[in-house]
Write a structure and sequence with these properties.
Number of strands: 22
Organism: Actinomadura namibiensis
Pfam families: SBP_bac_5
InterPro entries: Peptide/Ni-bd, SBP_5, SBP_5_dom
Largest sheet: 10 strands, mixed
GO biological process, one term: peptide transport
CATH topology of the largest domain: Dipeptide-binding Protein, domain 3
Structural class: alpha+beta
GO molecular function, one term: peptide transmembrane transporter activity
Radius of gyration: 25 Å
Shape: globular
CATH superfamily of the largest domain: Dipeptide-binding Protein, Domain 3
Number of helices: 18
Length: 509
């Protein structure tokens, strides 16, 4: 009988959690907990060089102070741990650190805290390695290598970075978590698993506990901040409504329309740094005409897909550059992104039509089935195309592109590594389309090697115009972030590259 009673009690408890998810929050903290609380999906890792999701970036932005930070209002890089980052030619960069920097364990922040951490990112093949090898293109940087020719320590607080080519955006790139420092004892021990559970940074916030359900962050002179692992957007939203959570970092599709009523003056949409594109294989003759690709672009109702299958989580594209990239971006560059089925049909007829099946290739298991089907249905209705879907494993798609076996449009996702138009445009030339227009590539090179980021804006715009003219790929939409917060929350600030600024969050009461 005791066993039966115990089982009944357990079942009853499980039912309570299912019908009232807010109970879980009350059990964690109690309704009188004065600490600001944030709901977020669990981070894949808190290892700075391996950060690969929004929660990881959010935590990293508070626990560490990088060489630079991005101003949320302008997107521009501002020196933080660095006292200066200079270069006479935009290829060889000298970094000088501010004196007195310390990690939370009391150890000093030195030049080797950065250079050895970057070497570890490469040696361990972490997610940030691509930024060193493909974006910054540090001389001699290779995944798996235990040394980098382009990194040279010149003093306790200074080091030199040599790139393979000039890149005026290099200082801004250094705001990414991949370039954060790590303490010497950790770098020596290589106990990455323990460090990821309880990371020691050099920022304004320190980790005091992490049990997988809640991450407690301590700030000098302020209340702790609690980041709760709540992957479900609906649970986050309901908990903020009930007063058991202060900030939700996601909004469910069915509550998007009621945000303003539910949280008057307490909601925020933050434009993102990533973009989804539809790319065209340059070797497929039926799709080789820019007029055909332009017709397809005009036939797509981006807003209908964003508000339908994508659940209000994206912003329809009007540029090749994501809207979260503030410096130098220009709205409305893509006039052919405006939905105009009549013009699309006429343009396709003028181009000679598009006969035979049109197969859409995309990554299987990435959650794209519904929106790809909606897009294909639009093209079937507006252009009378025989559209077909082909979901394939990621590795198979890459292999098919390399072998030029892809015979139809395919989905590409790309995120700018730093806030500048050229950071969004340059990766598009490596999207597998085979596009090699000399003028566009020359303007991209001019933008990367310009004397300053401001000087890079004009050649980047010219490159964007050329890409939109030829449309080797067309922009579809950019994911954005949603935040809603309680009446007692203060200082809710976020941007596309860091996310919610945990070090600025406070709460009354």
């Amino acid at each position: 009988m005791k066993s039966v009673a115990r089982t009944a009690a357990l079942v009853a408890g499980a039912v309570v959690v299912l019908v009232s998810p807010v109970v879980a929050f009350r059990a964690w903290s109690g309704p009188a907990d004065p600490r600001p609380s944030v709901g977020a999906a669990p981070a894949a890792t808190l290892l700075p060089g391996d950060v690969r999701d929004a929660t990881g970036r959010m935590v990293a932005g508070a626990v560490w102070t990088g060489l630079v930070e991005h101003d949320p209002a302008t997107g521009r890089a501002v020196e933080a741990a660095a006292q200066s980052i200079t270069s006479p030619d935009r290829r060889v960069w000298t970094v000088r650190l501010r004196p007195g920097g310390r990690f939370h364990d009391g150890s000093p922040v030195t030049a080797r805290s950065f250079t050895d951490a970057w070497t570890a990112v490469l040696r361990e093949r972490w997610a940030g390695a691509r930024l060193l090898t493909e974006v910054a293109r540090v001389k001699g940087a290779r995944e798996g290598a235990d040394g980098v020719a382009g990194l040279r320590v010149t003093g306790d607080l200074s080091f030199e970075v040599t790139l393979d080519r000039p890149l005026n955006g290099f200082p801004s790139l250094l705001g990414d978590p991949a370039f954060l420092p790590m303490p010497e004892p950790v770098l020596r021990s290589r106990d990455w698993a323990a460090y990821a559970r309880r990371p020691v940074g050099n920022g304004p916030v320190r980790v005091v506990s992490n049990d997988g359900r809640a991450l407690v962050l301590r700030r000098d002179g302020a209340r702790d901040v609690v980041v709760r692992a709540v992957p479900d957007a609906g649970r986050q939203y309901a908990a903020v409504e009930a007063g058991d959570l202060d900030v939700a970092t996601a909004v469910p599709p069915n509550r998007h329309a009621s945000m303003d009523k539910d949280f008057p003056g307490r909601h925020l949409v933050v434009p993102g740094r990533a973009m989804t594109y539809l790319a065209f294989p340059g070797w497929e003759k039926r799709l080789s005409s820019p007029a055909v690709r332009q017709a397809i672009s005009m036939a797509i109702d981006r807003r209908a897909v964003s508000e339908g299958p994508l659940g209000h989580q994206t912003t329809p594209a009007n540029s090749l550059v994501a809207p979260g990239i503030l410096p130098g971006r220009r709205e409305g560059q893509c006039r052919l992104c405006v939905h105009d089925p009549k013009a699309a049909s006429a343009a396709l007829a003028d181009a000679g039509g598009l006969g035979g099946p049109v197969t859409f290739w995309y990554e299987a298991g990435a959650g794209d089935d519904a929106w790809v089907k909606a897009l294909a249905d639009q093209l079937r209705a507006n252009l009378r195309l025989d559209t077909r879907l082909k979901p394939v494993p990621t590795a198979d798609l890459r292999r098919a592109l390399d072998k030029r076996e892809v015979d139809g449009p395919y989905v590409v996702r790309s995120a700018a590594a730093y806030p500048a138009p050229i950071a969004a445009l340059s990766p598009l030339t490596a999207a597998g389309t085979g596009y090699r227009d000399e003028y566009a590539l020359d303007q991209i090179g001019r933008a990367e090697s310009a004397a300053t980021p401001d000087d890079a804006v004009i050649p980047a715009r010219l490159a964007e115009s050329a890409l939109l003219r030829d449309m080797p790929l067309l922009p579809l939409w950019a994911p954005h972030d949603h935040f809603v917060w309680s009446e007692r929350a203060r200082g809710v600030t976020a941007d596309a590259f860091t996310g919610l600024r945990l070090d600025r969050l406070t709460a009354t009461g």
